[in-house]
């Protein structure tokens, strides 16, 4: 059906790829630890929406432009790296209160802003677009009647599985955070550690080469 083969292998491979840590999972865990499951879920929905953008672009050939054009790839790559570094700056600039002062709670972000962060973190990463171009076609028959439709079907399966895993990650992180009753100072430390990881990921993306 649709010219898709080895669907079980595709699902298992996609799950293993989603479990690997990256900027998406870091964002989900940070927001879940800070503001609870709803904030983590907002990040998940933003990331999943970004994945749908990549799926549609790859299915209809737009991602092929990134694969073929070094200039286009570099532009998107640098914009994505700049946005990740911007997120890192926002995490790193949180400050502890002065000595002897009571810690102040960090201001929660609106869910729509968390959604936008997840969306942009995913959409502005050209490596995601190239991943779909390299990974998904391996599970589509050469004589498939409608390759674009098969690509969209596989991409949607990948995105749904990723969303389910990410929602579990958000719920687990939020529950663990609630049980540990993280202090404001510890939350700020978590922000800084995550910010440093985002700096590393942003620099890594900026220096990455086109495949």
The domain tally reads 1
Which geometry do the CA atoms define?
globular
| Structural class determined from secondary elements | mainly alpha
How many beta-strand elements?
A: 0
**Major beta-sheet overview:** none
The low-confidence parts are: 96-105
Radius of gyration, whole Å: 19 Å
Strand content: under 5%
**Helix-strand pattern:** HHHHHHHHH
Helix content: over 70%
Distance between the termini: 31 Å
Given the structure, what is the number of helices? 9
Overall residue-averaged pLDDT value: 78
Description:
The structure is a single chain. The chain has 211 residues and is mainly alpha-helical. The chain has one domain. The chain is built from nine helices and no strands. It has helices at residues 7-19, 23-35, 37-59, 62-68, 70-92, 111-123, 126-135, 147-180, 184-207. Helix 1 packs parallel to helix 8. Mean pLDDT is 78; it is low at 96-105.
